[in-house]
Amino acid sequence: MSEDPATHHVLVVDDDPGLLRAIAITLRTHGWKVSTATSGEAGIDVVATGAPDVVLLDLGLPDLSGFDVIRAVRAWSAVPIVVLSARHLGDDKVDALDAGADDYVTKPFAMPELMARLRAAVRRSAGAARDGTAVVEAGDLHIDLARRRLLRRGAEVRLSPTEWALLEILVAQRGRVVEREHLLREVWGPTATRDTHYLRVYLAQLRRKLEDDPAAPRHLITSPGIGYRFEE
């Protein structure tokens, strides 16, 4: 990827219209191609359809949290994500980086530093493996990771937020076993790593919704004593 910022496409996701406009104007003045979004859902849609080189993401959005946006994008894309937030707490920074962010910038900030961080994120991503597949077809299942939409034989299947979070993680790592502790930590938080009954309950619910025979699943497979995997 070229070092010339004129070839770089940045998506800025922030619900503050004044700040969004100021950042966009400054970046365009310095040669960046800029897309904007004021909500998490809109930002995820632009990542899926607009193929930005880097995402500048505010954590405090009106619909999804910035953490949810990061996890959703990471289900199919390795696009670098730089978090922009007024939150100075160390836990927020750690949580954002653990969720899949590449860098974290706190407000207020200096534009030269912000642009340098964006350029660095683009450089680090050059040559990185990217699936970029937001839609997964698995038998009679159509899973749209960007829009959080699941169809089975053409009919929409409603999932709870917890069911979707589990499916999203498993589909993102399809074909590989995801350890129980990782699933618990990602969905229920760092203190839930021993609560394996949660997984059994929610995986059973998912199988009833996704599988022809929940007792002999084709897609949501248990690896006894280890975790679960999603098979296409």
Model description:
It is a single chain. This protein has 232 residues and is of the alpha/beta class. The chain has helices at 17-29, 40-50, 66-74, 90-99, 111-125, 161-172, 180-188, 196-210, and strands at residues 9-13, 33-37, 54-58, 81-85, 103-106, 135-138, 141-144, 149-152, 155-156, 178-179, 220-223, 227-230. The strands form three sheets. It has a five-stranded parallel sheet, with helices on both faces. The model is unreliable at 1-6 (pLDDT under 50).
Which SSEs are present, and which pair or pack?
Elements (H helix, E strand, L loop, with lengths): L8 E5 L3 H13 L3 E5 L2 H11 L3 E5 L7 H9 L6 E5 L4 H10 L3 E4 L4 H15 L9 E4 L2 E4 L4 E4 L2 E2 L4 H12 L5 E2 H9 L7 H15 L9 E4 L3 E4 L2
Parallel strand pairs: 1-2, 1-3, 3-4, 4-5
Antiparallel strand pairs: 6-7, 7-8, 8-9, 10-12, 11-12
Helix pairs in contact: 2-3, 6-8
What's the gist of this structure?
The protein has 232 residues and is an alpha/beta fold. It contains eight helices and twelve strands. Helix 2 packs parallel to helix 3 and helix 6 packs across helix 8.
Low-confidence stretches: 1-6
Biggest β-sheet strands, sense, barrel: 5 strands, parallel
Cross-sheet strand order for the largest sheet = 2-1-3-4-5
Structural class: alpha/beta
Mean pLDDT: 86
